[in-house]
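INFO  loader      accepted 1 record
INFO  loader      residues=440
INFO  predictor   begin
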Amino acid sequence: MFKKPLALAAAAATALGLLAGCSGGGDDAGGDKKTLKIAAFEGGYGRDMYTELIAAYQAKNPGLDVRLQISKTLEDEISPNMKAGKFPDVVVLPQGRKAALSETLVKDKALEDLTGVLDMTVPGEQTTVRAKLADGMIGLGTNPYGDDKTYLMPMFYAPTGLVHNKALFAEKGWKVPATWDEMFQLGETAKAQGVALFTYPTAGYLDSFFFALLANVGGDEFFTKVMTYEQGIWQTPQARQTLDITTRLLSYAAKTTVGYANEQDFTKNQQAILDNKALFMPNGTWVVGEMKDAPRAKGFAWAMTPLPAVSAGGKRHLTTIVESAWVPSGAVNKDAAKDFLAYLYSDEAAKIFAKSSAIQPIKGIASSVTGEIAGFYGLYDDPSITALVGGFANSAPVEGVSIKTTLFDTANSIISGDKTVEQWQAALHDASEKLRQAGS
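INFO  predictor   done
INFO  writer      dumping tokens
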């Protein structure tokens, strides 16, 4: 499992009660059944797994009317209702998205305490949720206030790293770089053959890249200091080295990267990997399903590697993305919501999710992963790779300040030449200091 984890169809729709939007009220106006409203983000795993899941849960709970709302723009659809006091009961949504809905509710202390769910017996089983969860899953990412209370339940976990076509490397006789020196040497070799070394779907995908690089450069303690806004942390040599490495890598980026790095066109940047026009991109397991119908080079084979080490034999980290499920404080049916959350960790639910390559952080499940993403999860078995879980700590909101935007989105300006590395570093220092002061 984890190595040294850180604290970081119309008929069917009618049967399942799919909603055009989540509305308020605890009981279905059409009868005595209590209504449980589930809102889920439709990402790379697709929607079929949710419709199957809800059907299975509904069959076990005939006295409950389970309604599902699923969308690729979930925040845009549920936020207006939430502002009007009409809440879904359970929300499944990744953190780190541009809309930052989960993060905003954390800052506003508008989430239900779910600590008790950990000690609930999984419906239909003889064990608790806590006993089923993989080691390291409860921590900074689930307990946002730095105490022992859990507000965000870990739902799916996925290794993220540099995704590439291993068939191309075999064809060319190229070695996957283990150090940054080797990476930049490969950049020159590929450039001579008209292939870009790097691209990214959107700048937001650089979260997994930066988290791993910060830990590679400065170690676990340095990573934690960056994530918690230690005073002056972005003025340190390690911070500058991180930005210098990234700036040099961005100089090898595909020329189309910035133009396609948006919500409408990001798959065109991913297509560059499938077409052998670029070698590496930061991404996760979901990209396999997301691009399953896309054309690709002959013999294409998905692979993932951690970021290179700073020096030979140095540490390499694998950023692990953990999606979350949570209950708004304003939800009507909180008890039913918590029972549903506990069911999500059942073997039955896990098998439904796994068919769509959505792997939950349940002990032993990674060993059952098959197909194209098996090699991705296999990276956890490498003793030289450290799994990295966590991200920026929550702080009091500061108007106009988003350290994620400053760190990730500035990459577009570095590629275009609109910003220098010095300006990048200064902006990061300013944002980090403001967030530190807001939290003190």
